Amino acid sequence: MTKRDQGDLQDQKVTGYQSVLGVTQTQTVRLPGIRTQSGHEFAHVDVAYQMLGKLSPARDNAILVCHALSGNAHLAGLHPETGRPGWWDYHVGPGKAIDTDKFFVICSNVLGGCNGTTGPASPNPATGKPYGMSFPAVTIRDMVAVQARLLEHLGIKKLFAVTGGSMGGMQALVWAVERPDQVRVCVPIATCTSHTAMQIAFNEIGRCAILTDPNWNTGNYTDTCRPEHGLAVARMVGHVTYLSEFSMTNKFGRNRQSATEEMFSVESYLHHQGQSFVKRFDPNSYLYITKALDDFDLFAGQPAAEVLSKVQARFLVVSFESDWLYPPAQSRELVRQLKRTSVPVTYINLETEYGHDSFLINNPPFSNVVRHYLDNEYHRE
Amino acid sequence: MHPGIYDTVLDWIPQGARVLDLGTGDGAFLQRLIQAKKVSGEGVEQDAGLVARCVERGLVVHQGDIANGLDQYGQHAFEYVLLLGTFQELVSPSDIVREAFRVGRQVIIAYSNFAYIGVRLQMLLQGRTPVTQSLPLPWYRTHNLHFLSILDFRDFCRDIGVNEIKCATFNARGPVRYLPNLRAEESVCLLQSP
Predict the structure, then answer these.
(1) Which of these is catalytic: A19, A166, A244, A285?
(2) What Rg value do the Cα atoms of chain A yield, rounded?
(3) B48 to A349: CB separation less than 8 angstroms, yes or no
(4) Counting Cβ atoms within 10 Å, is residue A341 exposed (0-12), middle (13-18) or buried (19+)?
(5) How far is residue B166's CA from residue A77's CA, in Å, rounded to a whole number?
(6) First-to-final CA distance of chain B
(7) What average pLDDT does range A290-306 have in this prediction?
(8) Domains (range + CATH), chain A
(9) Of A221, A366, B32, B34, which has the highest C-beta tally within 10 A?
(10) Which residues in chain B (57-86) have CB-CB distances under 8 A to chain A?
(11) A331 to each of A143, A145, A169, A234, B73, how far by Cα in Å?
């Protein structure tokens, strides 16, 4: 792996990056609304989504990729305006882990997001102004309900596979549990069935940074006066939790920007991450989505065996040894619960040393496992 | 392991059985078993690279240590639990065999016979820890923790209260029928809990 490859594609400076897919489009559709778990009725929801590959005549090769906290619908290929690669371009494309030559791949921005799907920054139809904090609480299950609307719109009754890392993995789990007859294969990556106190704690630091930014103004900020400082700090904290001591030592060590500079490289990297993130992310969305993450509980007080007994999908569960935010123990616990309810599950814990980000970076061992698994499962009778 | 061991196990397992293969390696034998006997099988393997090979073969495999990897399976989730070639490496063989009998109805174990004549002679004449075809690595590189004979294994079964239903023994020339504790290099047996 070259030095330049040791990062995800979202906020890095990627110069000269080539995508086999070329420029890819994202589109937005207005769909019938949903009733959220919190009881709010959306008359309609806008959903931004990307489609790659071709749907087979039997309509049996659709894969839904669910994005994580800071992701969006731009899954792979280059953005038509910014030229930036999609967040999973390393793993989605012809011959890649999610092979667009074989599969029809869909990715949509989540409910509560800020990249085209209805969220706190969208206009509230009742007032014409952005929802802000009047946006209803959203859950991982609500996000899945909106994805299901999109699939209805696209005429896809059954997914071959649903996958995602981190928050995307939670959505994949909800798909397998709540819509068992619509999922053949589920691939949750570096995820869990509910957050621990530590995971909630890091999110709370991020939220506090936003809430205490004077520009936050109880969520009613304007485009020219956003709580960017708070959001940048939230991203900085978040980003540290996605890395590992190894990846940080390897990438930055105690280097400084230049001999005359006082700032360590890691400091300027985090500043860059923060600054780049505030340009593309809405602070209120960050509050809503992190809250959805923290509130998520796949079992919601029910016995795991009962909840999982409905599952029909086969599973590949992937974790990374160096991931201390979503540690392998959480994946192993999920695997144990699945196995105890006789769900066929393959589990691999990869040695990748790049922390939680291991699924976002260029990672051939990870890519190969996912590619072979999907290929074998697709041809399983 | 002697190829005869694998042929024997293949012969013992009935069509369509549910099989758990502990220490499945690259999954070659499990795949053979699935193809030949249409078993529904899965493997446990601790090496990520070997697990990836199993995934390439389309096998259901769990990455984990045998000692920690068994409690996730329900009681009698399998008809057969296989321990082929990893038995001597287990820290606590009796605990693992008991646990294997919880998740499976029958357990098949293969191991090397430390009382094989070649081993005895090396020890006696050379005065060194033996290196043979079935014990190929020197003492400082072997993963084996236990050095047992066929008679030892029978004592072990008696001690933990399981019955040996079938047994097959081999040396480099093939199956061994007479004086296996002296003449066989490897042994495989099918165990049942009374």
Answers:
(1) A166
(2) 20
(3) yes
(4) middle
(5) 59
(6) 28
(7) 96
(8) 3-196+296-378 (3.40.50.1820)
(9) A366
(10) 57-64, 71-74, 77
(11) 22, 24, 10, 26, 16
Listed by start position, the domains of chain B span 3-192
Superfamily of domain B3-192: Vaccinia Virus protein VP39 (3.40.50.150)
Q: The complex's ipTM? A: 0.92
Report which DSSP code applies to A165.
Answer: E
Is residue A356 part of the annotated active site? The answer reads yes
Q: Which pair of tokens denotes residue A53?
A: 């590959």
For residue B12, the one-letter residue type is: W
Residues B14-55: pLDDT tens digits? 999 999 999 999 999 999 999 999 999 999 999 999 999 999
Q: What is the C-alpha to C-alpha distance for residues A264 and A232, in angstroms, rounded to an integer?
A: 18
Whole-number Cα distances in Å, B145 to B97, B101, B142, B150, B185: 16, 22, 8, 16, 17
How would you classify the pairing of strands A314-320 and B60-63?
unpaired
Query: What are the tokens at B20?
Result: 């758990």
Q: Are A176 and A315 in contact (CB under 8 A)?
A: yes
Among residues A86, A114, A108, which one has the least CA distance to residue A289? A114
